[in-house]
Amino acid sequence: MYFYHPGSNAVSTQVGFNLFALGHRQNYQEKVYEEIKYVLGDTERDITTDDVKKLKYLYQCVCETGRITPNVVVIGRKIHIELNLCGYTIPAGTDCYISPFSIMRDPKHYDNPEEYDPEHFAPDKVKNRDPFAFVPFSAGIRNCIGSKFATLELVVSLAYILRRYRVISMLPEIQNRPIPEFSLKPSRGFPVRLERRL
């Protein structure tokens, strides 16, 4: 149960954040839809792992949504050895708290970090970026054990939804700010309308 609950809650929340974000950005949503049609064709067949590897732009959108609205509000670590960091000495035994939200909105790593832009995760941008600048699942040896599975679930779930429906967000983003609880949550849910694609 321990693995199931955090994983299912995190994925369902991220599905909502993704749909809400794309519902406000029809141009990105249309690009995702065209990619899904190209990869899957007009069939209703199941999505395979080979298909997931080809859904590169959808993956970029998943990463961008995770950057803008990460589930993890704070990462806690205990410093086991004295550490010198940016001219400061951190004694051994200190509890340290890191904000993924701040890291992933740092203009040193992302152009226009406050803007939702899947191009932040274009291959040429990612290859030159510090790997610790993207930490929606934490990072290093203590990162989330289910991060790869959660990402797979997100891509597959979103592909199933977006190949059948156009998503339209029903509330301005400014009126639905994320709030930090145990994990990040929308203040007013994910009010979207689904329109069946023909």
Structure notes:
By secondary structure, this protein is of the alpha+beta class. The chain is built from seven helices and eight strands. The strands form four sheets. It has a two-stranded antiparallel ribbon. Pfam families: p450 (PF00067).
Summed up, the helix count is 7
Percent strand equals 15-25%
CATH architecture: Orthogonal Bundle
Can you tell me the CATH topology?
Answer: Cytochrome p450
What's the main sheet like? Answer: 2 strands, antiparallel
**Strand sequence of the main sheet, in spatial order?**
1-4
- The CATH superfamily appears as Cytochrome P450
Distance between the termini: 40 Å
Low-confidence stretches: 1-5
Secondary structural class: alpha+beta
Highlighted features:
two-stranded antiparallel ribbon; single chain; 15% strand; Cytochrome p450; 198 residues; disordered N terminus; alpha+beta
Secondary structure layout plus pairing:
Blueprint: H1 4-24, H2 26-40, H3 49-54, H4 56-68, E1 75-78, E2 83-85, E3 88-90, E4 95-98, H5 100-103, H6 123-127, H7 147-164, E5 165-169, E6 178-180, E7 184-186, E8 192-196
Antiparallel strand pairs: 1-4, 2-3, 5-8, 6-7
Helix pairs in contact: 1-4, 1-7, 2-4
